[in-house]
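Hi L., both proteins are below.
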Amino acid sequence: MDRVEKLIGEINGTMAIEGMPLTEEDRDMLRRCITGKTTPDEEIKRLVKKYSVVPER
């Protein structure tokens, strides 16, 4: 797991420079992708579903 956490730390460092440090949810998503428990495409679909707003009629 050290390799995974090191990689996430490097990603967080880069994002923090841009003013967008990773949230714990971001870190969990990256862990799932890096370890092969899910794919980036599956995570994107999950995020789109989570944040989609269906207009009321």
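That was the first. Here is the second:
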Amino acid sequence: MEKEERKIVVDIERKRVRITISHGEDEEILKLSLDEARDLEEKLNSTIEDYSQRQNLRID
């Protein structure tokens, strides 16, 4: 069984940020305003930071 490659491409359009997510034959395109893109950036950073902190926790 082959592992399907996941690919994320971020481009700039006139007044939007376009995010294309490809997974195998499937493709999803999101077009975000600058405010939406900034909000997504904040949420991603927060989630990644939370994930990193959880990785450092040790449960005995």
